[in-house]
């Protein structure tokens, strides 16, 4: 039997794991049995583009800039990024009003608003289904022993770069087989003083604030 080295097995295992994560996301719960979510696996060349774009947003979104710097380090070891997306309009006809409109028909006719993170207004049940899919993928990654984290910042960069087409709302899941879990040491890119200063200045606004959602 041929001898297979550890690095090759890690990469092969990571590739298979990403495919299984996509299956878990695809088969996760959907409101109204509307399985409209799409997913792409992002290679390291695209991840480099995402990292540069996210880092360039420093003046608008400090969080995106920090995660762009983080992604630059992440791709030095085996890793992968899944980006999930869906369209914003409702095909559910729940008429629940959660989006701010009385009916789904009113939502679908509303003027589209484009921001850094998404296009809206969007059906809240579409948003929930999207995050259920991402959480299903992340849950499977954890069960498979991968380092894992859900990112909105990297997803919005992929959205802006049109790496995932024909969607309005997005999220992403990054995984790694690095020797040490890289996902919970991102504060190394900010001093505590800078962290405290940024939070006090930007939060609790969710418009032109920490995420930099709206110009």
Number of domains: 1
Low-confidence stretches: none
Query: Radius of gyration from the CA trace?
Result: 18 Å
Mean pLDDT: 90
- Residue share in helix: 40-55%
Structural category: alpha+beta
Secondary-structure element pattern, one letter each = HEHHEHEEHEHEH
Total of helices = 7
Q: Give the overall form.
A: globular
Q: Provide the CATH architecture.
A: 3-Layer(aba) Sandwich
> Into which percentage range does the β-strand content fall?
5-15%
- E-strand count: 6
Largest sheet: number of strands, sense, barrel closure? 4 strands, antiparallel
Fourth-level CATH superfamily: NADH Oxidase
CATH fold topology: NADH Oxidase
Calculate the terminal CA-CA distance, rounded to whole Å: 60 Å
Strand order of the largest sheet: 1-2-6-5
Can you describe this structure?
- The protein is an alpha+beta fold and 215 residues long.
- The protein has a single domain, classed as NADH Oxidase (3-Layer(aba) Sandwich).
- Helix content is 42%, strand content 14%.
- The chain is built from 7 helices and 6 strands; from the N terminus they run αβααβαββαβαβα.
- It has a 4-stranded antiparallel sheet with strand order 1-2-6-5, sandwiched between helices. The protein has a two-stranded antiparallel ribbon with strand order 3-4.
């Amino acid at each position: 039997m041929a001898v297979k080295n550890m690095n090759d097995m890690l990469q092969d295992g990571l590739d298979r794991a990403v495919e299984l994560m996509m299956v878990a996301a695809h088969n996760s719960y959907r409101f109204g049995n509307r399985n409209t979510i799409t997913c792409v696996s992002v290679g390291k060349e695209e991840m480099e583009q995402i990292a540069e774009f996210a880092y360039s947003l420093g003046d608008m979104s400090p969080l995106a800039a920090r995660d762009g710097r983080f992604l630059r380090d992440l791709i030095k070891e085996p890793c992968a990024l899944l980006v999930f997306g869906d369209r914003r309009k409702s095909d559910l006809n729940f008429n629940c009003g959660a989006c701010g409109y009385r009916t789904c028909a009113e939502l679908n006719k509303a003027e589209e608003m484009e921001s850094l993170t998404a296009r809206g207004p969007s059906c809240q049940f579409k948003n929930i289904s999207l995050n259920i899919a991402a959480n299903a993928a992340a849950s499977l990654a954890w069960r498979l022993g991968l380092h894992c984290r859900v990112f909105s910042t990297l997803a919005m960069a992929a959205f802006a770069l049109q790496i995932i087409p024909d969607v309005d709302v997005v999220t992403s899941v990054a995984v790694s087989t690095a020797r040490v879990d890289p996902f919970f040491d991102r504060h190394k890119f900010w001093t505590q003083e800078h962290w405290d200063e940024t939070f006090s200045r930007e939060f609790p606004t969710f418009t032109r604030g920490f995420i930099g959602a709206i110009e």
